[in-house]
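CORE FACILITY INTAKE
Project code: CF-77B
Contact: R.S. (postdoc)
Sample description: multi-component assembly, three entities in total
Requested service: structural model of the whole complex
Turnaround: standard
Below are the sequence entries exactly as provided by the requester. Do not edit them.
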Amino acid sequence: MPLAVAANNMPVASLEWFLLVGAFLFACGIFTILTRKNAVSVLMGVELVLNAANVNLVAFSRFVKAPATLGPAGIELPKGVDPHLVYGAPWIGGNVFAAFVIILAAAEAAVALGIILGIYRNLGDVDVDQVTGMKG
Amino acid sequence: MAHGHDDHGHGSGHDAGHGSAAPGGHDDHGHGGGHDDHAHGAAAAGGHGGGHETHFQPAGMSRGLAVLVLALGVAGGFFSLGVTGHFDFGGRVIDLNDLFDTPWPALTVLCLPLVAAFVQIFVGRKLPRRGDWVSTGAVMVGLAISLMMFGRMIGIYDWQFQRIHEIEWIGLFTRSAPGQPDVTSFRIPMGILIDNITVIMLVVVTLISTLVHIFSMGYMVDEPRYSRFYAFLSIFTFSMLGLILCHNVFALYMFWELVGLSSYLLIGFWFEKKSAADAQKKAFLANRVGDIGMFLGIVTFFYFTGQITYAGIFKGVAEGAFSNHMGLLTIAGCLLFCGAIGKSAQFPLHVWLPDAMEGPTPVSALIHAATMVAAGVYLVTRMFPVFTPDALIVVAWFGGITAIFAATIALCANDIKKVLAYSTVSQLGYMIMGLGASAYTNGFFHLWTHAFFKACLFLGSGSVIHAVHTQDMREMGGLWKKMPITFGAMLLSTFAIAGVPGTSGFTSKDGILGDLLFAAHHHAALWPIVVFAFVGAGLTAFYMFRLIFMTFTGKPKVQEKFDHAHESPWVMAAPLVILGALAILSDKGGWFQELVGPPPSAASAAIRMDLIAHGQPVVEEAKESAHEGGEHESAEAHPSNEAASAETSTSARRHPYEDPLEHEKHPAHTTAMIISIFVAGSGIFLSWLTYQKKVISAPKIAAALPGVHNLLLNKYYVDEFITYFLVQPFLALAYGCARFDLKVIDFTVNAWGYFTVLCSRVAGLFDQKVVDGTVNGTADVVQSAGTALSRFQTGRIKTYLAWSVAGALLLVGGFHLVTNWKHVFVRRPAAVVEPAK
Amino acid sequence: MMAALGISLRDPAAWVFLAFAAMTVASALLVAVSRNIIYSAYSLLLTFFGVAGLYAFLDADFLAAAQLLVYVGGILVLILFGVMLTHKIRDINLSNETTNPIVGAVIAGLLFLVLAYVSMRTDWQVVDRGPATPTTQEIGRAFVGKYLLPFEASSILLLGALIGAAYLSRHERKKEA
């Protein structure tokens, strides 16, 4: 049964659309990483991959059935307290995950840029093919 | 009895200078320590001065004499203490029977020299005076205790006196049954036996050892290994004391070997000299030969009786342990006697003793004249009850042959110590001969007297050697003017050994000769021995006076040596004086004959035949009664309870030995006395004629009898005989064995070796080609694979990513494609949306 | 037919979605293939915008805003700084060479195919959650509730990254000097 916006409260496009866009972004990111010599471009590819993952996470968060339990195992809340108000909605996990990915991406970008600058200052170039210190 | 004791009192009074009663003894004892210290100090001065003295020093000598008198007083004090039997020490009365009733005094005597030996070995050289006072002090304390014991022995005056202190040394247990206590199936006791023989031997050993220690302070003063010498002397003293104190053959054997060891060490003390090193080896090996026999004898007795204590063995033999093997009892006795042959230098094994004169002269005096060589005699004395009559005949023959044999060799010896060495061999032969002829008391008596005069002679010869720096009597002469004290002491001792009436040697030797004559009347096999003995006595007198004449009288042969001669320092002279006096006095008092008597013969009791040990069957009844009486007294005299011991300690009861054959022996003794006086006198006279008056020319006699002379000069070729007929065959056998070893065994071994090498080469090839090939092949495969795979490790991140993505694709996509290829291209049904809650 | 596509073309919002999706895809492709790194960087800007739009379509308002703020405002600026710091600015052609484009294309293509296949062939357990609600409050509750520990850990990580980046740069400068 197709997803109809008017019929229910679902998004305009079905889950598969988002997943396909995410897959394409992912493939582009991988292609960028594999083919670019410039370290900054490689970093861009990584960002693409991360965004692809984020798209998937948010899409799953929106569409897919969430787990029933919310809180940590073994901890019981006092009676009459809504666990949703304490732990957040069950379905929000994907969004939170995506938020963490964004945080990590920011950190990664900063560190990666520091590394790139280090490589540039040491080698006079940012060609990742020249960085073969781990060659076996 | 009372008469005998009076005699003894006279004798002891002489010994001690002033025999004193208990209070006097106390005083002496109280000052004893101070005197000893003074003696040490004086000894130090005398000892150091001795090296440089060239002339007789009256001042030093008189001081020495003062100390000597004081020492004799102290010794007499100890002796008197022992006789009295108790000791008032500030109100506390000390019972001196504890000397025997507890083991500690004897153990003190035994162990002090051992401690001193260890001290000397480890720290001796760092001590003042290089530690000689440690050893000397140790043996002096032993002498003091021994003198007290001696006095107590005189005080008790019981010929069957005996004390045994014993512990269980080794006990092997067997479990009899579960829950039951274990049963001791095999036990080796260890303990000390104190009886009159032991006490007499203790006095001999400690007294002569003390005098030799003191003598050595002068004689060995220039010796670089001075402290080691004293250590060895202490080890020897310890061993000898252990030998005479132990109460079982097991310990006897151990101390026997220890004595042999210390003898070895001391003979080779100047091991730089090849002759000394050879002599020590010779002595050790010759003793080994005898000791093997002795060991076999001990094992035989242990096998048959299951006992190792003297008393146990005697009891076992008397109760018929050998009843089915009577011949074996004789053989066992002979085997035991082999030990005595070795240690006491009897005929076939005597060769080591003359060579042992390579050792320092004090050692010769202590070990090779007075004490150690007497160990063999002591062994026969101690084990006397197990010797069968046949075995005793063998013993007597060995002794007799040795006595005459060594005496003839001594006739032609020119080395002063060699003369004394052969004289020692000869005198030991007399002792053995006497024991073999059942002259138990007199045989052992000769040991006692001989110890003193022979030690005196050796120390005197040491003094002479010290003065003229030669041992060859042909380079001496006229020394009596230069060395009056040495000459006097040696002359007295020579009188004793020659058997001049009135001396100790006369009494003991005459006793042996008389008993021998008596025994020969009852046993024809002993007649040749009697002839040997009397001829030997004459020869002894001859060669001993030859020594005196050649050394001390006449004109000096080598003027230079005579001019340098001097009397020895008083540390050397004082022992000579004491021993010279004892050479005359040691037999006086008659106590010896009353305190040393033959124990009942276990062997004869077992055999029911008692020809030799106690006379003919005609006197059987007398002997039986004596035995019964003896046993009866023995039962009373060996009390185990305190009350009886206290009763004994009052010394109210005296049990002197009374020879049951006294009257039968009397004519023989008279005859022997007459003959021996005649023989000794003629020997001395001939010697005087030959070497003093030169009426008889010794070289002419030698020229007239070249064969005999050569025979004697070469000591009957015994050494050569042993060399050619024992040593050489053994060496040939050894070389043969060695050759067999080299040719056959080594060949076999080498063949095996080559074979093994061959096998290992083959195995090595296999190893290299196959095993190593496998291993290397594996390694090569791994290496080439690694090389191939390392191409993936480009170090480029992108390559890694490409491979990992490709791998992930392969895993996910490829796997799915392979497993579900039918459904890959078929559209799945659309997802179902659940309604909102 | 459109229903089979999972999208209603009659809905204007669907067209808006398609436009965003197309922009995202196209700009991402440009990032991957552009020969000029500056172009790539700016295309990446468009991609981030597109992704933010997709977030909005997925009712993730907070994330959409965060995407714009962090990616566009932060990361992209960093990347541009990186481009400029590692290239001489006078270079006319800021070249962006590629190596083994065919291998990369094959791998990327296969990857897309597999992902697309999985996306299309999986029987997703889709649920209707009712009308869209603001997510900020929920995310906030989750951060201080269930995900408190990762949240704090990420803050420490950010601090570490900050210090580390500064250290790396500064260290190299000192070394140069």
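Facility notes:
- The domain at 4-67+83-123 of chain A is CATH 1.10.287.3510 (Helix Hairpins).
- Helices of chain A lie at 15-35, 39-63, 83-87, 93-123.
Invoice: internal transfer
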